[in-house]
Amino acid sequence: MNFEAQDLLIFERSRSGREGFRIPAPDIPLKSAEEMVGPGFLRADEPALPEVSEVDVVRHYTGLSRKNYCVDTGFYPLGSCTMKYNPKINEAAASLEGFARLHPLQPQHTAQGILQLMYELTEMLCAVTGMDWGTLQPFAGAHGEFTGMKFFRAYFDKRGEKQRTKVLVPDSAHGTNPASAHIAGFEVVELPSDQDGLVSIEELKKHLDEKLAGIMLTNPNTLGLFEKEIAHVAELVHEAGGLLYYDGANLNAIMGKCRPGDMGFDVVHLNLHKTFSTPHGGGGPGSGAVMVNSTLEPFLPAPVLRKKDGTYILDNEIPDSMGRISGFYGNIAVLVRAYTYILTMGSDGLKRASELAVLNANYVKERLKKRYHLPYDQVCKHEFVFSADELKEKYDVSATDVAKGLLEFGLHAPTIYFPLIVHEALMIEPTETESKESLDRFITVMEKIADLAEKEPERLHGYPLSTPVRRVDQVTAAKQPVLRWRPE
Amino acid sequence: MFAYLPHTESEIREMLSGIGAASIDDLFADIPEDIRFKDRLGFEAGASELEVCRRLHSLSKANTEAVSFLGAGTYDHVIPAVVPAITGRTEFYTSYTPYQPEISQGVLQAIFEFQTMMCELTSLDVSNASLYDGHTAASEACALAINSTRKRDTILYSATIHPYTKQVMATYFSDLPVKLVEVPEKGGIVDLEAVKELLDDQVAALLVQTPNFYGFLEDYAGIADILHENKSLFIVSSNPLSLGVLKSQGEWGADIAIGDTQPFGLSMYFGGPSVGYIAAAEKLMRKMPGRIVGQTLDEDGKRAFVLTLQAREQHIKRERATSNICSNQALAALATTVYLSTLGKEGLKEIALLNMQKAHYLSERLLSELPVQLYAGQSFFNEFTIELPKPARQICERMEKDGFFGGVPLHTLHPQYSERLLMIAVTEKRSRDELDRYVECMKGALK
Amino acid sequence: MSTPEELKFQKSHEWVRVEGTTAYIGISDHAQEELGDIVFVELPELEDEFEAGEEVTNIESVKAASPIYAPVSGTVSKVNDDLEDKPELINQNAYETFIYALEMSDSSELDNLLSYEEYQKFLEEEAE
């Protein structure tokens, strides 16, 4: 396959005078811009946008797409990302014009269909999490985490407990947890995990004072291990006057088996683009819906979805609301997909999905643990973490080298170097939509890479060879950043 | 049966024996008995595609359409067929964040092109890979200003920015040591004299918007110099479509440019997803929030693209991060990139101009034939605010019966605005026939 | 130039070389190794004042970002401009590459710092 023609930037394909779109002919009297607004408001320089035909646009972006790996072409064993299959019916539902053409400010009685969908989706998400109500507004997981932290703040401010400034976060947590707590004005205290990789009750007890706002946890944790002591943790934190926040990134492990509300969490964020099958889109848009119990319900961001006398409304009369966290009501097109997925799977399907996600993870773990160091050797949930530390020590093969080896053999790499508490971490989450033969192929390739590590590590250092580009120079990219194309 | 769960019973048995477990329940045995969920989740069992489609169709039909003159941040623009054709490509929409650049050059290069286009439109040096929307972009821009100036804690913002932007910023900064101070409006635009009075050595930046919330254009001549002399930054928010014809933020001397690219290839979709953009002067590059794609070389010396400057981001800085943003609106930003490629240099100018012409045609007819006036005697792009003799909401209800969403009654967005103010957006999609009928319809409604 | 044994240290891995009333500050060899290839060093402004313990600047590598804290209080009197184009100088010789210098306001604060032996011991304890 010849990639060269497709290596151009769209600007490099420009030809002066070429046009790509026919604009509707004006049917009104024409005036110049100067006549309409005066000369002082007109731009002097012309933006150097491309001048290409529609054919150029299609060839260019189609060509780019073919250099891109995706779920529809292959397996992504990315821990913490839940790269499950993106059902096509979701796309069909999301493309319905009756949704796409809605303006967020059109009178609410003319948008009852979408409001009903959003209301029912909120109910479904409450059912899965064991919570009482929520908001679909947050645009992404991190945005949901920030919203969750704002719930903490609003609750304690209302109670006059402004001295509660401390939020506990395990050292295995995702970076967005401490970052979100920090920008919500909290002081973040890192809790070292115990030797089993779980929350240490001993460490927790050091912080159960009047400065405690609460704790941010995910369960199962980022090692894929279920926090068995969670009810005890919840009791201790609540007794000390704090709240519990659940990072829903790992919800795919426990749908229908266990609910964050029952574990004692007060606020939960969900990643609809992980657990609920909406596509990742190359990095977004996703949705970070946040569900709360009745204690925190009064603080929901305005507007709140409600049903009054059979009519769905967006209610702005929320006296204790934390305020607005986004312009309108969330990434609606993503919500339509999640709703469609939940309808398709139903209560039994979601439970089955979690069961098979956990089966798949344990299967891969058991088959590969003879070849890769498994620091926490026990039953996992939907994901587990290997360490390439022994490979690094013996053969100078790092987690990065293992990852690049997978790329060479046509698979995506797992998550690497996270969680931080495992050196040379390789975090693997197969998800339930991978068949046994897909897992067996992954296992075979990982075994081959382990063989290469022992016998020909230099080959791994040189991989990948057959991808559209080889390993890139990240140092120069960060030292002398070139972040845009410039016309000559 | 579930179409996305491939396992057969015999495969499950095989896998369980490989693990050494008797049943799947064994794998959940570590969940304590008293927190196990034993009921069924409280909604229906799964359904076939046929049933699901029926349900979704019925919900989509339970919404009403009308000829739309609604704006306030989201607009009814033409979407070239090429845009969904590209964003519907599975290699784009089912792909993950491009952390492995070797197999993600498609997504990475598209982002690099987006960044370049935003720099060109705003006349600034560096752009990121997009933020969630225009309102959250404003919060990020103010945070960037605070973090780039030493020992300053105040943001001045114009009364004429979008009320939702003000609210989102208020929530974002409510627990941080940042002061938000509103600069009053005068004659429908920001009062620049008041800016001069409010400027002190605590001000990190001034945030303004043009076209402003009412749709009016604001003249910032001289302001950038005054701010820079005070060592404050200048942040300007603009509807990017207006930048096809009107002065860019960079040309006004802004240090940071923000806004929302929904007008470029995205459906209104009840408000989301849209795409926030942020572009800035070079000196602010290393503190920019969000993802950024850079150009580099691979081991064979081939041009390649990669996520760079990651030291800024949450996964490295953790609790010292100045923003928690982890993602971008990738696929929606791709729609914008394809739109801008398709419209191109001349096309964008043309379509921006057409928007202006249609809006001015309508406003002239309304102002000359009806008992209404512009809220203020200012210029505008494709959106304007008029004062009606009766409450705007009433007029809109009458016009709805004739198939029009006549505009946004400002009082419904925030009680501070008079009930008689109506904001009307006109895009290239509104035909002359629709515009003429609008005038007749409003005449009838005002009787 | 001094050998590391002549320098004073902080637990946050900065070293201090004193010349009269000026404190030259850099980062230890351990720190540069942890960071990996340094791609950017943010330099403070001349005349800026800092208290001991305040964050003065920031060093970035591809995979990490490290704040640099003032070991003593003072006013910035010098910055190492070479680091603008060649941040890798720190990787090449951490102890000979200063980042900035402070005109000290209270030289007794130097007593709060660690000696080279004490810093080495601290590193060993951390490694366990």
From the helix content, strand content and strand pairing of chain A, which structural class follows? Answer: alpha/beta
Query: CATH-wise, what's the superfamily of the largest domain in chain B?
Result: Type I PLP-dependent aspartate aminotransferase-like (Major domain)
- CATH superfamily annotation of the largest domain in chain A: Type I PLP-dependent aspartate aminotransferase-like (Major domain)
| Number of extended strands of chain B | 17
Report strand order across the widest sheet of chain B: 2-10-9-8-7-3-4
Q: How many structural domains are formed by the residues of chain B? A: 2
Structural class of chain B: alpha/beta
Distance between the termini of chain A: 30 Å
What is the number of helices of chain B?
14
Residues in helices of chain A, as a percent range: 25-40%
Largest interface, per-chain counts? Answer: A-B, 198 and 209 residues
The CATH topology label of the largest domain in chain A is Aspartate Aminotransferase, domain 2
Helix content of chain B: 25-40%
Q: Strand order within the widest sheet of chain A?
A: 1-7-6-5-4-2-3
| Sheet with most strands of chain B | 7 strands, mixed
What is the terminal-to-terminal distance of chain B?
62 Å
Q: Strand percentage of chain B, roughly? A: 5-15%
**Rounded average pLDDT of chain A:** 95
Give the overall silhouette of chain B.
Answer: globular
Summarize the structure.
The complex is a heterotrimer of chains A (488), B (447) and C (128). Chain A contains 16 helices and 12 strands. Chain A has 488 residues and is α/β, with parallel strands linked by helices.
